[in-house]
Amino acid sequence: MAKNIILLLFRRSLGALISILATTTIIKNLSVEDYGIYSIFLNIVSLASTFTTLGIDAATGYVLQNKKYKREDALVNTFSLGAIISVISFFIFYGIFYNLHMSDFNIIPQDIKMFMVVSSVCMLYANILYSILIGNMSFKSYSFFTIIPNVSLLIALFITTRFFHLSLKETAFYFMMGYILTVVSLSIYLILKYKILKNLYSFKKEISLYILRYGFMSYLSNVITFLNYRVNIFIIGYYLGSKDVGFYSTCLVVIDFIWLIPSTMASITYPMFSDPNRRDLRKQLIPVITRSILLLTTLAFCGFYLLGDFFIPLLFGKEFLVIKSILLILAPGIILFGAGKIITADFISQGKPKVNIYLNGLALLITVVVNFVLIPHFGLKGAAMASSISFSCVFISSLIIYCKMTHTRILDYIVPNISDFKMILKARN
């Protein structure tokens, strides 16, 4: 496990650094209003790709590891289902983005809507292809391919800002090209490595239906989780405008950076503990990992907050110092939800994604209601309060349920021990 942790953590740290550099470049070369529009563009792309995966990406790790079907057969079915859904989604996205008249769609300029369509399709298929790598525990390949979109975007931004003028249209185009490059290169890699074209006869209705049935539960959970995390963007845009969307989106960039370690660990534990032969190891390690993540996320947040007066102007500009007070309100939710990622990922590993649906559904309801109540009165601080309350509720509820399921104590997941990190690093894959 130690090798995988280090590899994924390095990749995600590098990816986060590149993402922050790209975001910094965009912020410094676009107006705050244009950056707000670009943030809405990104959220619509992420929302569209999340809604149309049908849970195939979430189910892949479980299906490849639980040994119900041959791994090669499950892989071919995942690859093929992803291709079919991506083609269908292109026409769906095109019809929606060009014909649905809502405030968040109308704010996107017509000349970048096609970029939004193609980006959504490519992100959708890329996420499904990434899940094949995770499901096979090919973390080295996963680390390489997942960084391609960020690297290509940063290179294009650097060249443009060095010799030309960066516009909103060019920024959206570069984002799209990063995902096109990723999908093409990763598809070729998987086809050659796993001889997918030669094994297309393995595409079977039974396996595909199993993937879709299991994935649908995870799909609902992931969609609700995404909405819970991003719905603020659309409500802020409705009440406060694109400038405040830009500020809040910058907070999300920082949050994603703080969540590097919990996201990395969840990516490893999910496929690892989907193997039924590792049940005893799961019961031993999940409490250890959760309480360690709780400690590390707390330290990461405190470190960034204490150095925020230096880093925020350096990365985003002095105008963005306002986000420091927003991040402080978000702090409880950021810290607790980071640890909660381990528990919610393990619900899926145990074949119980329904639990996450109920938990995240409750959290989304809290987020939406509290947002509509607080944002008109408190602005961005109200949005931060809503997210912090919602994130905290997810962790507390999931921890109580998980402890009842596993017959363990709540304190085992909260109070860290000195020996915890040694135990995690020594655990076998």
UniProtKB/TrEMBL annotation:
Keywords: Cell membrane, Membrane, Transmembrane, Transmembrane helix. It comes from the Bacteria. It is found in: Cell membrane. It is a multi-pass membrane protein. InterPro entries: Poly_Biosynth_Transport. The chain crosses the membrane at residues 12-31, 37-64, 76-100, 112-130, 142-160, 172-192, 212-240, 246-273, 293-316, 322-343, 355-378, 384-403. PANTHER family: O-ANTIGEN TRANSPORTER-RELATED, PST FAMILY PREDICTED COLANIC ACID TRANSPORTER. This is Oligosaccharide flippase family protein. It comes from Chryseobacterium endalhagicum.
